[in-house]
Amino acid sequence: MLLALDETRFRVNIARSFVLYNERMSNRTTPKGARTRADILHTAVDIASVEGLDGLSIGRLASELGMSKSGLFAHFGSKESLQLAAIEEARLRYVKEVIEPALSSPLGITQLYALCTAFLSYIERSVFVGGCFFASAMAEFDAKGPSLVRDRIVECQEQWMMTLERAAEGARANGEFRVDSDSRQLAFELEGALLTANWYFHLFHDATNIDRARRAVRTRLSREATQVGLDLLPLEPQDS
Amino acid sequence: MLLALDETRFRVNIARSFVLYNERMSNRTTPKGARTRADILHTAVDIASVEGLDGLSIGRLASELGMSKSGLFAHFGSKESLQLAAIEEARLRYVKEVIEPALSSPLGITQLYALCTAFLSYIERSVFVGGCFFASAMAEFDAKGPSLVRDRIVECQEQWMMTLERAAEGARANGEFRVDSDSRQLAFELEGALLTANWYFHLFHDATNIDRARRAVRTRLSREATQVGLDLLPLEPQDS
Known about the structure:
homodimer
């Protein structure tokens, strides 16, 4: 029954963006069961951020939590349901830590800059133990065959790109970017700096890579901006 | 005995760069054994490029090749040795497909551009079934604890960054880049475009992302270049 409700929840979410759908759904389980489920998923996403979603077996999670496999099956029913629930939990954490702080800035260059710096802050603060959950999930599933898990990862990544793109479109509409600005190209290039910061920060254990990405973002936005946009760009990185 | 020789081979390679060490080592096994080993590794790197290096168990590989586990153990001795051998095989393929074609261009802006376009061509041609082997390996091991496998991945990634950086330094020394050009920053930003092309090409099944990266590389190099450099930059992407 719980599983059936959760499956519906995922179907509904698929059509919604990070921005439109950024609140936790009302809880349909008992208070005690809900806390347990939340605790389980908190641990699950951190395991997945280090070892990958395919490393997130019910057996592995049961061992980490000191729970029985049958107890976890009662919550999730299958490895795939557990993986989908972990993605949803990660998405809510991402919205809270990256999207929501940036949405307090007005649509346009300041919001785009805020999205990028919020992402870099989220990496630096190790919101997920193993770095960006979605970067890891994308790298793990990019070349794999079709599955519900892969579909959901694709949607999340596309929603993030659309969030960047919408802010860039806003900047163009406001006259903060040049009229010939290509919002998707800009989002692609910004994402390149952000992703590389994520990988290299962890791979080389070197925070210089976060600074490199901040510098890349700032320079790239400056290059796209009109004088109106340049005047709105903060003089110093927000998170340094 | 075979294992011992291979371990020595890895130790020697660690101190060498992609550029200095780009030839296959002479074969120390029998011709028949060597062919078998090469076939095994060819399959192993393609499995790892899709399913990750940790998905490359001796059992998984035995099943794929229709070989016995004991036969594979005779070749590699352990999962870790198999993983290290797969990395070495992948490195040689990378050198052949990306580094060597670009080294025919003189050190400087043309070589840097050639390295980037050779990488994008290598992604587009699916030299590894699952996309760039090293991008996948980096994403898989970036947040994991220390191991010989992780160490080797870090070294390979750093060698690639140094290859880009050296070409950029050459461009500055030749007067093709501005005197205040930051070679490591430039390499970081170029790598961002290349990595994102790799992920998005596979994740979204969309070759537009390769074109976006070509455009990003070209614009970024143009921005770093003096008039001397601009005159050397090919008018059209080499691989489009």
